[in-house]
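Please review the protein record below. Let me know how this chain folds according to its tokens.
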Amino acid sequence: MTSASSSSAMREILGDDFVMKNSRGSTEKGSQFHLAGKHVAIYFSAHWCPPCRQFTPMLRRTYQRMKEDGKAFEVIFVSSDKDERQFNEYYSEMPWMAIPFDDTSRRQSLARRFNVSGIPALVLLSPTGEVLNTNARADVASDPHGDRFPWIGGSQSSLANGLSMQKVAILTAIAWVVFAIIIPYLQRHGYLTNDEVA
């Protein structure tokens, strides 16, 4: 894919105008130009959400380390804050880009596009706009220095396959029942041998 077509793919997904911080920490207008050739993590979060406020400092440290290491990585904050005052207060803690708060339709469209059902959520895109990981939050937690970046596979959860957290919990419970109760029962009654289970 050429840089023009990858830029076009990113533009189609994310739009073209952003809020960003300059070197003095002031807010200014950003564009697709600042995303060229970079992996982009879309960060769905809100000031009112305690797990978000716990995860944001962790993501900020990872982001700063990766920038220091010269990794082509950017984060875009998609706010679920209740008002612009909350957005501004929360965004003041972030060094990365953001979708403008007043662009409600784009913020909602991104949440729908990536099936975001809870926050915080972190979706990782390749420089060409390909979805690499819909649960990059787990990777930031397990790889805070970004040693395994770009986090393809690894701790990528089954959310990437379109499963919600509730479905993952149900499937985990079913697997536990099968392995802890049903298989031992079948073995005790001679229906299964250890060789068949392995």
The first helix runs from residue 3 to 14. Strands lie at 17-21, 27-31, 39-45, 73-79, 97-98, 121-125, 131-133. The chain has two domains: 3-158, 165-197.
